[in-house]
Design a protein that fits this description.
heterodimer; A: about 110 residues; mainly beta; six-stranded mixed beta sheet; five-stranded antiparallel beta sheet; B: about 110 residues; 11 strands; globular
């Protein structure tokens, strides 16, 4: 049962433009969401999070938007840089469980 | 601050053999997680420890997988016997206290079962 879904396996963006990564969820009990970034041969690293009481959280070039009614969140990266090329996972905890999406591979083209 | 350490980084075994993975979390982190990440999928939580006690192991295939965290620090994950479908990256993560959602991941152990 895939409670957190990332329907786009890959995304290519030109350097300097905006990258938008999307994530959908099915469990209305989720009240906190996280984005992780993963480079090859490394473990995921925490990027940014958002509580369900907010609809936006910003940290430098990274902004996460949450639309609870649509059960949808998105990560915006602007401007995109080649070093942002990685796999991005959205995740949500509930109880003692953590659910990760399948990831979106972002390629930023110089 | 040293990160989460895992060893080995790579392991190739034949099916029905046994294998063990080791994890050393960030110093002082009370909570430790083991994840299985199959190619093309997101990490799947297998077991969560709070200090040396198990918080959740509902997704751990207990007929073949076992894990322990002695003294509330290092942890080992064992598979006995391994199956072909166990081929995956096994990730260890830690967080400073229970309820902290941001986890710090190690580099993972890539297991190939032939």
């Amino acid at each position: 049962d895939q409670q957190v879904k990332q329907n786009s396996p890959s995304l290519s963006v030109q350097e300097g433009r905006i990258s938008i990564l999307n994530c959908d969820y099915t469990n209305s009990m989720f009240d906190y969401f996280l984005w992780y970034k993963k480079y090859p041969a490394e473990g995921p690293t925490f990027l940014i999070s958002i509580s369900s009481i907010k609809d936006k959280n910003e940290d430098g070039r990274f902004t996460v938007f949450l639309n609870k009614s649509a059960k949808h969140l998105s990560l915006h990266i602007v401007p995109s840089q080649p070093g942002d090329s990685a796999v991005y996972f959205c995740a949500a905890p509930t109880g003692n469980q953590f659910y990760f999406g399948t990831g979106t591979s972002l390629t930023v083209i110089p | 601050e040293a990160g989460v350490a895992q060893s080995p980084r790579y392991k190739i075994i034949e099916k029905r053999q046994s294998v063990a993975f080791w994890c050393n979390p960030i110093s002082g982190h009370a909570t430790l997680y083991w994840y299985q990440q199959i190619l093309g999928q997101g990490p799947k939580l297998l077991i969560q420890f709070q200090n040396n006690g198990v918080v959740d192991d509902s997704q751990l295939p207990k007929d073949r997988f076992s894990a322990e965290r002695l003294k509330g620090v290092d942890s080992t994950l064992k598979i006995q016997p391994a199956k072909l479908e166990d081929s995956a990256v096994y990730l260890c993560a830690s967080s400073p206290y229970g309820g902290a959602y941001e986890q710090y991941f190690g580099p993972g152990t890539r297991l190939t079962v032939t």
